[in-house]
Amino acid sequence: MLELYTHPMSPCAQKVRLVLAEKGLEWQAHFVDLKNKANLQPEYLKLNPLGVVPTLVHDGRPVIESSLICEYLDEAFPDTALRPEEPYLRAQMRLWFKHVDNRLHPSCGALQWPMVMREGLLLLSEEEQNRIIDRVPEQPRRERQRRLLKLGLDAPDVVGAVAVYRRTILDMETALEDRPWLMGESFTLADIALAPYFQTLHQFAWTDMYADCPRVADWYQRCRERQSYETAVSGDFTSDVLASLHESGLRAWPKIQQHLGNT
Ligand SMILES: N[C@@H](CCC(=O)N[C@@H](CS)C(=O)NCC(=O)O)C(=O)O
Fold this sequence. Notes:
Glutaredoxin, alpha+beta, 62% helix, Glutathione S-transferase Yfyf (Class Pi), Chain A, domain 2, four-stranded mixed sheet, 263 residues, binds glutathione, 4 strands
């Protein structure tokens, strides 16, 4: 029995959903309402002490951290293997994971949070805002949310985030020079680890960030064309939701473009 605590717009949860879809596994979804901070409720914190999605529960046992969950699923359900066999290539794949976990994911958060979460919090009193942010388990995340709440897309975190995105895109363009997928001829967890971060660019219509990188554009198009992407990612975005994200993304684009100019 596989259960996933998930949210449609979470790239980390999208990674796990892509693995489940590639492997054709049945699973039960538990929607975690991040906007209303269901992730910070004591019941959820028992499963995931960091108060983040995703959490996989396999036969009653929780597994947290999306990269670990992806590898866990590949080990527990080895049909349709999604990792290279060779240890050296596995190490290379994990380098991509490390980059995503340590750099790209926080950067995506710095871009997505002001676009999606900030507006709702701004409607609350300062006291209520502080009460919510004080409950975020890790101090750097708390501090960052305070900065993003106060400054929105002008926060220094956003300038850094755009630079990390751009660096990632350029590194991928180089990696894809002689191969269709990040690890070679086969679609692997490395591609799965990166693709959802391009959904963020797609949903906000910020795809010009890789307009000069044809190999990355082609790679992402091929990711999107997979049935797993439709099932695990695109299918969760109704045309109304996508239209409203596009609209807010286009409004914010001049600011993002300005940050890009400073990278
Ligand atoms: N390192 C974690 C990061 C998970 C994470 O940051 N999830 C975000 C959504 S993408 C979240 O739940 N954020 C809730 C919040 O910060 O309040 C993983 O890979 O699972």
